[in-house]
Fold this sequence. Notes:
single chain; alpha+beta; DNA primase, PRIM domain; 3 domains; 8-stranded antiparallel barrel; 6-stranded mixed beta sheet; 18% helix
Amino acid sequence: MTNNLKKYQEKRNFKKTSEPKGKIAKSSSKLHFVVQHHLARKDHFDFRLEWHGTLKSWAIPKGPSYNIKDRRLAIQVEDHPLSYRNFEGTIPKGEYGGGTVMIWDEGYWEPKDNFNQKGFKFTLYGKRLKGSWSLISFKDNNWLLIKEKDEYHVFSDITKLNRSVKTGRTMKQIAENKINKKAITSKVKAIVEDIKITNPDKVIFPKPKITKLDLAMYYHQVAKRMMPYLEHRIISTIRCPEGINKDKFFKKHLENINEGIGKIILKSKSLHKEDYYYFENSQGLISEVQMNSFEFHPWGSSVDHLEKPDIMVFDLDPDEKLSLKKIREGVKDLKSILDELNLKSYLKTSGGKGYHVVVPIKKEITWKKFRESAKNIAVLMETKWPEKYTSNIRLKKRQGKIFIDWVRNTRGATSVAPYSIRLRKNCPVSMPISWKELDKVKPNEIGITEALKRLKRKNPWEDFF
């Protein structure tokens, strides 16, 4: 496939259009791609793949589709300069392609086989388009863009996503380009990780007053510390669409693909296939916040090694009558047992009544043995201090005692993630703390303001992985 910008440059008057004149660039170590929504004489999407210093380009009238049954017509047009992938704006009326251009998606791509004029397969790593795709030539410049079957294929119409992944603007806002400075500031403020936060001023916590945007900004700021415990792990969330004084509900199945979210299909006990999901990056986290999910509970294994759990969690759940002093004694007793077993452990507040003790597991182990090991540790505590602890989940068995909750170390069970807020009074955070802070920090006293301040300190879980 030859690379030539002559046709591109001949079609445009660069004294009138702000499109880049461009030149054939040096090849990048990573190949870029961009999809631009183009509202010209006819509404369409422009699909562009970097190849040998230019962008190979196709016009797709209906836009890309995640449905593997769709065969989307893609008409090959002239090569565009690599710098065109950053173009978003308006091409003057009367000029070639006159109309509005939005950066609808961007990212990187990898060819799976030879890039040729008959057709080829490739993988996309975009904010909206992901996974395996094919471009197949069938007549002259006419091609078909087809989604290959993989974990990403879904049946929702992704072309309804109507904001730029670059600026968060709609086509109308790009076309008008008349937004005053104050309006721009407020709109930019409500875009986090390139995700538009709708209803940003909606109050989730009345006291202290915390809005949906406040929570999006919080997760954006803690993402670097938080994502290692969330990324590529099946996730369940607690959604709270109208604030903590209204209905909340637990969500664990995939509804639709958003930016930064991947899909995995698992069989239920009744052998039905069910869609679960995970975060590929911090955009996935913010996408879920945008959907009113504010509390996050991951599995103890990653989707890359689903049957090999690597994070063990013990939740010390006390009888309501027990003092904080007794709870802290329980944490210390558990740590002493783990130390004897040469298991390095880490401490975090639960955001509730107790503390969580977390153990990274380096040795490959099955879920069955993982669960048995966790249970045995709880039984050992119960045997050693029968008047203080129980491994029995029943409420009647924990009167005057602390339940050492080992059950969450079961395939399919979850535990609240480090740095996640809890949808409880005052918006507490499940916060990693150092062992020397155990006697100083209460289980539910760290809120988002304090959590953000702590990011400036040394990470108490720095060597976790």
